[in-house]
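Subject: Protein record for review, amino acid sequence with C-alpha cells
Why sent: The fold of this protein is of interest and is recorded here as C-alpha cells.
Enclosed: The protein record, placed directly beneath this head.
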Amino acid sequence: MGIFTSYLRMVLLIIGVLAGIQLPGFVDQYGKSLQAHLIESERSLNEFRDEAEKFFDGSIEELIAHYQASDDRVFQEGGQSISAIYQRYQQLNKAHKNFNQNAWNAYQQAFFTPVEDIQQEVRSDFSYTVRLNPGAILFGLVSGLILAVFGELIVRLLARPFRQSQRS
C-alpha cells in the first residue's frame, strides 16, 4: 500500500502543478477578451456620443430618452438599441476597471464574478499553454502541493476502516 500511496501522491502533485500553471493563462486570456469587448463596445457607442455631444451636451442618457420619447416607433426601438449598447459599455467598463485593480480582483472576476458571456467565450476558446513566469510556477506548485496533500488525506481516511479491521 505504501508504494501505491507514493505514486498516487506524485501523480496528484503533477496533475495539480499542470492544472495550476493553466490558471494564470486563463485569467490573462479573460482579461484580454474583456478589454477587446470593451473596445468594441466603445466603438459602437462613439457614433451616438457624437450625436449626444451635438444635441444634448454629451449626455447619452438624454439622447436615449429623446429617442424613446419619440412618437415614431422606429426611433423608440432605436432608443432601446442605444440603451442596450450603453448598458453593455457600462458593464464592461466597470468590469475592466475592477479586473485591473489588482491580481486578486483579476482572479476573483475571472472565476467567481465574471462577465458570463466573456468567461464562456474564453472557456470554449482557451488554448492550453505552459507559461513559465514566476507567478504561474508558484501557482502551479502550490496547486500541486494542495492536491497531493488532499489526495493523501483522502486515501488515509478511506484506508482507516480497513486498518482498524485488520488490528481486531
User: Anything to note?
Assistant: The radius of gyration is 26 Å. The chain is about 85% helix and 0% strand. The first helix runs from residue 2 to 56. The CA atoms of residues 49 and 68 lie 16 Å apart.
